[in-house]
Amino acid sequence: MTTSHIAPPAPAPGTGERDPRGWVAPAIATALMVPLGLLALLFGGLSVMATDSCGPDHCSAALDTALAWIDGMMRIGGPLSGVALFTAWLLPWTRRWSAARVWFCLGALVPPLAVLYLALTLPAP
């Protein structure tokens, strides 16, 4: 009678080891998100006053389009930013997930940066 012993498969390299620097990307993104988010809320909220000189009906189409993008970024991008940052903190702290963690952190910063860019480059009314 022969007993065959089968060894368990070796784990893929870099999948099970803990990432000692896994907290760095979410911490940097969180530290950047606080001032960027507040500035985006401030400038995005104040950008509507760009229509004061032309009234809501006589403004250029480019200004209306930029204001619509700012409004959409604040309504949809804001919560998505929070979810992406939250996901970056909740991903497993292994090396396998380090690239995804960095991408979620970068994705969380896109909406406030886009709002700031759009608000600071509004076209003339």
Key phrases:
membrane, 3 helices, transmembrane, single chain, mainly alpha
Write the layout of secondary structure elements.
Layout: H1 24-46, H2 61-90, H3 98-120
Quick recap of the structure?
With 125 residues, this protein is mainly alpha-helical. The chain has helices at residues 24-46, 61-90, 98-120. The protein is elongated, with a radius of gyration of 23 Å.
Folded structure, characterized:
It is built from three helices and no strands. Helix content is 61%, strand content 0%. By secondary structure, the chain is an all-alpha fold. It starts with 23 loop residues before the first helix and ends in a 5-residue tail after the last helix. Helix 2 runs antiparallel to helix 3. Keywords: Membrane, Transmembrane, Transmembrane helix.
Rough outline: elongated
Order of helices and strands: HHH
- Please report the distance between the alpha carbons of the first and last residues: 90 Å
Indicate the radius of gyration in whole angstroms: 23 Å
Keywords: Membrane, Transmembrane, Transmembrane helix
Transmembrane segments: 23-46, 66-90, 102-120
